[in-house]
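Lab channel / #folding
Pinned by the channel admin:
"Please post every new chain as: sequence first, then the structure tokens as a reply. Keep commentary short and put observations after the output so the thread stays searchable."

First post following the new format, from NK:
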Amino acid sequence: MNKTTQAPPGTLSLKSLHHVALSVADMDRSIEWYERVLDANVRLSYQMPDHPVRIAFLELGGDIELELIEFEGSQAYPTGSMPDEVVRTQGYAHIAFAVDDVVATTELLRRRGAGVAWEPRDWAESSLRTANLLDPDGNIVELVEPLEAG
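Reply from TO:
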């Protein structure tokens, strides 16, 4: 279905993923990390009236948008920050970005100060090469590249 075709009445028609939101401990530190490491630009940032909550929407290129939420007194994720630990708790596991070259992108982001949780590795089952980075709060940022067939 292209953008000019309307879905029939009663049919669900999701257009795209609008954004992903992450709870962070320190908004300024997180914004600095996403700007430095992933070339993000702050589109909108504000304090919620009458609530201890700060919000920032970051543009990450293309149609990718990330919402950061700083809630005063929020608690860290209940498990570790390694990919094989996070999946043991239901809910958020990671945010993944498609890239042309996982190995080169991992090295670039490492030079920009990103921590690497898992070095690039190939997954035959899904035909993907991935690497996992950590943001300042231990949120997993995955890089994904399709493996060549053959």
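NK: The radius of gyration is 17 Å.
TO: also worth noting, The helical segments are 27-38, 83-86, 102-111.
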